[in-house]
């Protein structure tokens, strides 16, 4: 029976393909230059400039130079052209140009018209970008409107179907690595966290235009995130006049009980409702554009339903369940104006606000080995409110040369975390009532200045950035009868971070070769001040000045084949919550505590990639190797005479991540297309020893740990009659390494359909995630004197229906 199930799963997995159809979305190249007389060096106004196809000399575009002798021609697609210059009193001149793959703007520089006609070197220009892999092979772009099977869910859920992305413990992983920097509209803010993804599971996917995945970022990006960058782009309508979109999504999850509760606890959430109304408004008139976007999300979720067995070397066995019923309301408003007073100047002022309210009702029963005795029942209510407010001002100056830009921006973010926990500790002989309160305010100010100048065969980019970030935090404990809470581990702590940075990036392209080389210098100073009464930790901090280089070399074999080599160096700084000194008691026998002695990890990445294009399809393959120093990982230890596990982040030494990736996209017919991705990688952590300081110093040693893992995704899109689309997605994640152990293999399948109605203005969709209800999380952990085996039957199956209307 097991063999039959595996065969059926394999057949289904191979039959169906994935959530992203690679529909070409083209942006055009712009060519500019300056005409001068060869003898007098004077400018030549009102000269004719004509572009024709090289093959058939068909007219493509034309213009005349302005009073300053300058010209520009936009909307040129990929191809090879002949450009001709003519003016009264001068001999005609022609040159050949090829629209290439790297630069959206080309500056031909000075074009000299003399009596002697001289051909100029062939020049290559960036022209297009398609959904999926970029021509530079450093970025993948996906529009969420194509993700039918995850429509109506969160951004985090929508990412599960993207090639190369996996979700584990609520975190994004690229190629099996969760050190991902998340940007919103190209900038970091506290909504998604700095180096974390704290808010992605509550951002409605309906608010997002597209998602960019950057595996090998250039020097213009911040240096953090060794796995790469996820850039989330909000929708923004640019049509003239008043227009907008309204939508409503609703759904149900947890329709069936996957695993019955242990005795004596409150019921699991079932038939959990999901409601998401949204509105997007836009008004554009002449030089002014205003926009407003609002979302409200209400959802109940069986957020965790984990069953575990802890076995200790002294023979003690504890059975437990962690059940968490979650209710979340999430309100988002984004608004702003774009103002273009003239052709050279542009301003954008925007504001963003959200409020997230979380109510968690948890039950954690602890039983002995044969479930004959309940040792403890820990119940809690988490009442948490998070606020985020962001304001930004962006200025752009356009020089007369197209693509020659100066950008300046200031971004300020305030994020409040107001968290209260109320505990009921039910023991065989007494019942205690405990509580704690945490208040944290995060302030982040960013200033950046960027300069871009097109060249004849490329461009230069340079800029500066300055960040100041402070997070004052206060934790108060309110112990009850026979309280297990460590009241001496509370108090205040202040996190302060200062980061100035400067970068330069150079891009060069000719007919066969591409070069992109950059260098970023960052100075980082972090100070973490701890109240002097804390029983374990003291004030700490670090600083460094480091260069972060990047290099990309590419060779274009022909129009269909390209090879690329990448190198970059990146850093992952500890998140403030990773060094936060307060123990968290939502699970009292598996405590999570921060570590203020934690230091950054640095990564060198080497990658080789190949892209092959053909009619209506392409395949991308890559092999890569990452070397990580001072690897950040969470380590659980026990102390003598106690069964409590203390889970604390540590620097584990050197580790390696080596793997290969394949992404295939193909349109087989007008009504059917698919893409599939396969990743295989090996994670290795060298042997290390650490000391967990809390609550008492405990030494832990781990031998070298190594595992080969991977994932595969297949997605299919069917275009049916009457503007109807059907999408089926399947994901398989192989057994993988986690700190001190492994996580089991996982498989899930999603299905979705959408239909255009009301002459294309309306849209209906219906979908289901994990339709076979197969996704569950199994872990095996081994520590100093204990093993922990767990399976989480959390809510993964959700069915949604939605409607939207454009006007």
Topology:
Layout: H1 2-15, E1 29-37, E2 48-53, E3 59-64, E4 70-76, E5 79-86, E6 93-100, E7 105-113, E8 123-126, E9 132-133, E10 139-143, H2 155-159, E11 165-168, E12 171-174, E13 180-184, E14 208-214, E15 228-234, E16 241-253, E17 272-285, E18 288-312, E19 317-339, E20 345-367, E21 374-398, E22 405-426, E23 431-455, E24 458-478, E25 491-509, E26 513-530, E27 540-556, E28 561-572, H3 576-579, E29 590-593, E30 601-614, E31 617-629, E32 632-637, E33 645-651, E34 655-669, E35 672-685, E36 688-692, E37 698-702, E38 705-720, E39 724-733, E40 736-738, E41 741-743, E42 746-757, E43 762-769, E44 777-783, E45 786-792, E46 798-806
Parallel strand pairs: 1-7, 6-8, 13-15, 29-33
Antiparallel strand pairs: 1-4, 2-3, 2-5, 5-6, 9-10, 10-14, 11-12, 14-15, 16-17, 16-46, 17-18, 18-19, 18-45, 19-20, 20-21, 21-22, 22-23, 23-24, 24-25, 25-26, 26-27, 27-28, 28-30, 30-31, 31-34, 32-33, 34-35, 35-38, 36-37, 38-39, 39-42, 40-41, 41-44, 42-43, 43-46, 44-45
């Amino acid at each position: 029976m097991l063999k039959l199930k595996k065969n059926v799963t394999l057949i289904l997995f191979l039959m169906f393909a994935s959530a992203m159809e690679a529909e070409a979305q083209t942006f055009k190249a712009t060519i500019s230059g300056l005409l001068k007389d060869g003898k007098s060096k004077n400018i030549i106004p009102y000269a004719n400039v004509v572009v024709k196809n090289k093959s058939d000399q068909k007219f493509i575009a034309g213009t005349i130079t302005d009073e300053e002798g300058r010209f520009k021609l936009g909307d040129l697609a990929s191809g090879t052209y002949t450009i001709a210059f003519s003016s009264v009193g001068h001999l005609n001149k022609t040159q050949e140009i090829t629209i290439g793959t790297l630069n959206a703007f080309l500056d031909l520089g000075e074009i000299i018209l003399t009596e002697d006609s001289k051909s100029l070197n062939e020049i290559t220009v960036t022209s297009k970008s398609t959904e999926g892999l970029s021509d530079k092979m450093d970025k993948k772009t996906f529009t969420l409107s194509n993700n039918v099977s995850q429509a109506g869910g969160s951004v985090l859920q929508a990412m599960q179907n993207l090639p190369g992305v996996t979700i584990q413990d609520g975190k994004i992983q690229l190629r099996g690595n969760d050190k991902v920097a998340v940007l919103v509209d190209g900038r970091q803010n506290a909504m998604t966290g700095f180096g974390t993804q704290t808010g992605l599971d509550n951002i409605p996917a309906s608010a997002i235009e597209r998602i960019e995945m950057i595996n090998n970022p250039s020097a213009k990006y911040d240096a953090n995130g060794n796995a790469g960058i996820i850039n989330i782009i909000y929708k923004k309508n640019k049509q003239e006049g008043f227009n907008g979109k309204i939508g409503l999504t609703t759904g149900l999850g947890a329709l069936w009980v996957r695993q019955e509760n242990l005795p004596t606890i409150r019921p699991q959430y079932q038939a959990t409702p999901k409601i998401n109304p949204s509105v997007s408004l836009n008004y554009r008139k002449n030089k002014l554009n205003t926009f407003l976007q609002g979302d409200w999300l209400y959802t109940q979720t069986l957020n965790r339903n984990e069953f575990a067995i802890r076995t200790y070397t002294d023979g003690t066995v504890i059975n437990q369940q962690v059940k968490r019923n979650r209710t979340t309301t999430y309100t988002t408003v984004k608004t702003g104006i774009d103002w273009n007073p003239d052709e050279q100047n542009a301003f954008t002022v925007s504001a963003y606000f959200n409020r997230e309210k979380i109510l968690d009702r948890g039950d954690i029963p602890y039983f002995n080995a044969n479930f004959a005795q309940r040792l403890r029942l820990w119940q809690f209510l988490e009442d948490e409110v998070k606020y985020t407010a962001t304001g930004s001002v962006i200025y752009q100056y356009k020089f007369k040369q197209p693509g020659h830009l100066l950008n300046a921006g200031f971004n300020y973010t305030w994020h409040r975390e107001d968290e209260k926990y109320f505990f009921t500790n039910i023991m065989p002989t007494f019942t205690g009532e405990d509580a704690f309160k945490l208040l944290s305010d995060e302030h982040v100010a960013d200033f950046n200045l960027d300069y871009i100048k097109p060249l004849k065969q490329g461009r230069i980019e340079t800029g500066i950035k300055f960040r100041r970030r402070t997070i004052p935090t206060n934790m108060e404990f309110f112990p009850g009868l026979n309280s297990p809470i460590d009241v001496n581990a509370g108090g205040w702590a202040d996190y302060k971070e200062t980061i100035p940075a400067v970068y330069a990036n150079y891009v060069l392209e000719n007919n066969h070769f591409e070069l992109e080389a950059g260098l970023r210098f960052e100075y980082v100073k972090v100070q973490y001040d701890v109240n002097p009464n804390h029983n374990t930790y003291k004030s700490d901090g670090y600083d460094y000045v480091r260069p972060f280089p990047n290099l990309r070399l590419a060779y274009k074999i022909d129009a269909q084949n390209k090879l690329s080599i990448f190198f970059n160096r990146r850093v992952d700084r500890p998140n403030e919550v990773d060094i936060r000194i307060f123990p968290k008691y939502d699970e009292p026998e598996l405590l999570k505590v921060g570590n203020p002695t934690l230091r950054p990890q640095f990564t060198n990445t080497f990658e080789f990639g190949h892209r092959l294009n053909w009619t209506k399809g392409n395949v991308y393959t890559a092999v890569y190797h990452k070397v990580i120093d001072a690897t950040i990982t969470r380590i659980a230890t026990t102390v003598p005479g106690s069964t409590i596990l203390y889970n604390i982040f540590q620097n584990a030494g050197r580790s390696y991540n080596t793997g290969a990736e394949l992404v295939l996209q193909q349109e087989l017919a007008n009504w059917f297309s698919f893409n599939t991705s396969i990743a295989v990688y090996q994670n290795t952590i060298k042997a290390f020893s650490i000391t967990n300081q809390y609550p008492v110093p405990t030494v832990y040693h781990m031998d070298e740990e190594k595992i080969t893992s991977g994932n595969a995704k297949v997605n299919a899109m069917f275009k049916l009659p009457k503007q109807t689309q059907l999408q089926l997605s399947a994901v398989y994640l192989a057994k993988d390494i986690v700190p001190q152990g492994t996580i089991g293999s996982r498989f899930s399948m999603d299905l979705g359909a959408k239909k255009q109605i009301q002459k294309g203005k309306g849209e209906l969709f219906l979908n289901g995630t994990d339709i076979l209800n197969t996704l569950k999380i199994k872990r095996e952990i081994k520590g100093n004197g204990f093993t922990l085996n767990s399976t989480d039957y959390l809510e993964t199956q959700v069915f949604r229906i939605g409607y939207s209307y454009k006007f």
